Amino acid sequence: MAQITKNQIFNTKKVVYLLLAVTAISSVVVSFRTDAFNGVPKDDKTKPPVAKEEAGEADSVISKKAFLQAYKVLMHPRCMNCHPTGDRPLQGDDSHIHTMNVQRGEDGKGLYAMKCSNCHQPQNTPGLHMPPGNPNWHLPPADMKMVFQGKTPRQLAMTMLNKNENGHKDHEALIEHVSKDSLVGSGWDPAEGLAHLPMTRAEFVKHFKTWLDKGAYLPDK
Ligand code: HEC
Ligand code: HEC
To answer: Which residues line ligand 2 (CB under 6 A)?
Structure first.
């Protein structure tokens, strides 16, 4: 009996020493790893993964913010003057209705003899209050007016995404249009004396693309 008890005590001591040794070694290993990775153990599986929102901004937030940036360009007179609610283009930095009773017409190129190309030449005509130019200067057609004027960011985003209002464009075609279309480009080449757009075309395209790529979220208002 006494022998067994002695053995048991001895065995228990062995286990305790062994545990102490394991604890000491593992704490050295952990502190080494912690130092090596600047306080953050590399494969620490005990912490839950950081939520996307905490790490940065959610896609919805990034997307909406990007549209609000693009909106500054879309609603600027250099763009909006060709995207009016009515059937007459707008003019100038105050977006007043185009003088001389110029009208949209079915194809957006003017009504009867008042064709846009009568006055709007392939290039800007030099001088103040002269017509800006482009070989293809015209409004969107009567059956697809692509109205920007008067729209809130949310409303304009909805228009942009609606294929029955945007000229049947998917995301790719929209990006293609804003990056390459020459009428869009004309916004960055205003007639003399008119305000310039608030950012470069590359910046505008970047915001527009971010809006779509991050999920094409609608701004709240
Ligand atoms: C001279 C008139 C004119 C100007 C200036 C103009 N646009 Fe347009 N825009 C048009 C016409 C016409 C269309 C339709 C052409 C088409 O779909 O191919 C159009 C279509 C669009 C579309 C696609 C339709 C939609 O509603 O999504 C976008 C986006 C657009 N324009 C953005 C701009 C931006 C941005 C600017 C300024 C940097 C601008 N436009 C300046 C005439 C103009
Ligand atoms: C009879 C000549 C004439 C005709 C026709 C004409 N325009 Fe103009 N347009 C002008 C003149 C001149 C200006 C510059 C006015 C100013 O700056 O005071 C102008 C300015 C504009 C502007 C303002 C550009 C800006 O950046 O603010 C737009 C948009 C425009 N025209 C669209 C059209 C469209 C679209 C048509 C055809 C449907 C058309 N115009 C037909 C003479 C004309």
So the answer is: 77-78, 81-82, 89, 91-92, 98, 100, 102, 104, 110, 114, 116, 118-120, 129-132, 138-139, 190-191, 194
